[in-house]
Amino acid sequence: MMRAWICLTPMLLAACTGSYEPTPLTQKQATKLEEELAGKVAGEKVNCIDQQPQTNLTVISNNVLLYRVNKRLIYKNELMGSCNGLTFGDTLIVRVFGTQLCRGDLAASANLMSGMTTGSCALGDFIPYRTPGK
């Protein structure tokens, strides 16, 4: 019996080391993303952004979110994992520690009508998109 566990251990460890591959955007989602970021220029990614009351969340896909700070600044976030259900109107629930949203903060999508969790993910890097100055 011990021999069986010794033989299975490498296979079990290999199963845990898989990597996550995000679902590619559909044509409709890609068009929506392009429209939202039109006229803006990407900047250097940052790990955290301020959690502000005026920050609006736009769901592009189950893997891509936009945080609109104002009309000149939008942060794009590519989630690690998939919060399935976001594209169907489920709510994103983020566990925030402090006053900022940060890379690695754990999140879940939930259907508020049923109370069911529909996915789990973590926030990725925040890429700022700014309207260039004139």
Question: Would you give an account of this structure?
Answer:
- By secondary structure, the chain is an alpha+beta fold.
- Helix content is 19%, strand content 37%.
- The chain has one domain.
- The strands form 3 sheets. It has a 5-stranded antiparallel beta sheet with strand order 1-11-5-4-3, with no helix packed on it.
- Strand 3 and strand 4 form a beta hairpin.
- The longest helix is centred in the N-terminal third of the chain and has 15 residues.
- The N terminus is likely disordered.
Q: Could you give a quick summary of the protein structure above?
A:
This protein is of the alpha+beta class and 134 residues long. It contains two helices and eleven strands.
Please give a handful of descriptors for the protein shown.
134 residues, alpha+beta, five-stranded antiparallel sheet, four-stranded antiparallel sheet, 2 helices, globular, disordered N terminus, Lipoprotein
